Amino acid sequence: MAQAIHLMHQAGVVDKTGGPFGAVIVRDGEILAASGNSVLRDNDPSAHAEVNAIRMACKKVGAPNLKGATLFTSCECCPMCYATAYWARIDRIYYAAAWTDYADLFDDSSISIDMKKPYAERTVKVEQMVQADAQKVWLEYRALQQKTRY
Q1: What is the pTM for the complete model shown?
Q2: Average pLDDT in the 104-118 region?
Q3: Closest-CA residue to 69 (of 32, 123, 39, 35)
């Protein structure tokens, strides 16, 4: 966790590559990846420390699965970072600062609340269209002899 907090300080205060967020992924006593936030440097709203570290760790192990890994993050995961950790099959997340510690600066809790609303009430409008076209592709995918489930 000390390294995650160091990366938090480096990214947010020293290098100013993004907000003050840092993350480290460990599995079997080995650090697979460590990263700070780089949203501003990369002009990429998905370049959160956790997502950056997960991408690095997956590349290192050569798989989209980090089963058995632990994520140490300087701050409570936003919905995107939690979802990325979920998809990567990370087993455990430890965090230092809570959403309430920085709610005046970042709207993680607001996003979480917004996502629980019906589509019609969300800040970003969501609407389904051409479902039948997408279903055709899913039928083709299901028929493949070799398909990837992750």
Answers
A1: 0.92
A2: 91
A3: 32
